[in-house]
Design brief:
The chain has two helices and 14 strands. With about 180 residues, the chain is mainly β. The chain has one domain: Tumour Suppressor Smad4 (Sandwich). Strands 1, 2, 3, 4, 5, 6, 7, 10, 11, 12, 13 and 14 form a twelve-stranded mixed β-sheet that branches. Strands 8-9 form a two-stranded antiparallel sheet. The model has no long low-confidence stretch (mean pLDDT about 85).
């Protein structure tokens, strides 16, 4: 679907299986009702991300690494040890502080920005690492620089990188959305 930004056509998302966060954001129900929602052809133009000369539409994930993040060439963010970065577009990023927490962060794929969730890890004695609460930064352009190669996953495609430049693409994807969309 990340190639959708290069062609001028309308895309419909047909959800398969339950617990599908993209269909939830787009407002496309699971099951037979999804065909009805797609047949109504309610269309919207949605943002697309651009990372190292390729598009991504749902989510970009940088696995915990020693990295430095530079936002819109204005300020830097880093952690004492390792940090995880998740950049969201269609697919929201969910986290829980504890088992009872019901907090969800839904992103807006039409706001002209991408959202980055930064989660530093702190060393917890001999038992490994513990995630801190994430910080959320909307941005138009971001650069991630690592001391060593880090693992990045964009729309399911994994790669090893040392420097990544992420920005909002000029192109948009025309998608069929449902009435109950989250934006």
């Amino acid at each position: 679907m990340s190639r959708a930004a290069t062609c001028e056509c309308v895309f419909g998302f047909l959800p398969i299986g339950f617990d599908n966060t993209i269909s939830e954001v787009l407002g496309i129900p699971v099951g037979e009702e999804s065909a009805d929602a797609l047949a109504r052809r309610r269309k919207e133009f949605l943002d697309v991300g651009w990372v190292n000369n390729r598009y991504f539409v749902s989510q970009l994930h940088v696995h915990p690494s020693k990295i430095e993040v530079i936002y819109d060439e204005r300020f830097k963010a880093s952690a004492n040890d390792r940090m995880e970065v998740v950049v969201c577009n269609f697919k929201p990023f969910y986290w829980k502080k504890d088992r009872k927490d019901k907090e969800h962060q839904v992103v807006h794929p039409q706001d002209g920005k991408l959202e980055a969730f930064l989660r530093p890890l702190t060393k917890k004695r001999w038992w490994g690492y513990k995630y801190e609460d994430p910080s959320i930064f909307p941005f138009e352009e971001m650069e991630i620089i690592g001391e060593k190669p880090f693992t990045m996953e964009a729309d399911g495609k994994m790669s090893k990188e040392v420097r990544v430049k992420i920005k909002l693409a000029r192109q948009k994807v025309e998608m069929i959305v449902g009435r109950d969309r989250k934006f």
